[in-house]
Write a structure and sequence with these properties.
Layout: H1 7-22, H2 44-54, E1 58-68, E2 71-76, E3 81-87, E4 90-92, H3 97-111, E5 115-123, E6 134-140, E7 143-144, H4 145-152, E8 155-157, H5 159-162, H6 169-173
Parallel strand pairs: 3-6
Antiparallel strand pairs: 1-2, 1-5, 2-3, 4-8, 5-6, 6-7
Length: 174
């Protein structure tokens, strides 16, 4: 529809024309940092490199997807490597769909599309397995998300991966 004569529309058209004439914003020249080189696939070699580079050290990440209360997909920054991370030391406490959905919502509402700190501590299964996920601790700005999930009863301790936790084991067991 044509909206000529509408004051807001005319103002936006004038601003767009000014941007084109000045070659700024969307109409300006591309900058080197404008295009991100995102690694969508994480193969066995990539996981080894991630483990060597980030093992037991905090790395910034942005959570893009929450599979369940204990598993998230995130971009590790600044390289934008897309990885699946299983939270170390915990597993869902129930197979009941209502409780599982509530646990997933709890995790989503606190982590989704937020920058967090991840400490990579290992990987699930065998390293050479194509479906092996990274195991790590996700630090929400207010603390360890695993502790919050345990306090609310959405998860329980997973003895298999609990041994991989390097710090604050006592807090999770309490």
């Amino acid at each position: 529809k044509e909206r000529a004569g509408d004051a807001d529309y005319d103002r936006l058209v004038a601003a767009s024309q000014n941007g084109q004439d000045s070659k700024i914003g969307l109409f300006g020249p591309p900058k080197p940092d404008d295009v991100r080189d995102i690694k969508w696939e994480c193969n066995e070699n990539d996981r080894r490199v991630i483990m060597e580079e980030y093992r037991n050290t905090p790395v910034r990440a942005v959570v893009e997807y929450v599979r369940d209360s204990c598993t998230v997909r995130a971009f590790l920054l600044p390289k934008f490597t897309n990885v699946m991370i299983c939270l170390t030391g915990i597993r869902p406490s129930s197979r009941d769909d209502a409780i599982a959905a509530e646990g997933k919502y709890f995790t989503e509402s606190r982590l989704l599309q937020r920058e967090v700190s991840v400490v990579v501590e290992g990987w699930t299964g065998k390293a050479g397995n194509a479906t092996a996920n990274l195991m790590g601790t996700v630090q929400h700005p207010r603390g360890n998300i695993s502790e919050f999930l345990l306090k609310e009863g959405f998860v329980r301790i997973n003895d298999y991966s609990f041994k991989s936790i390097k710090s604050n084991k006592e807090m999770l067991r309490a």
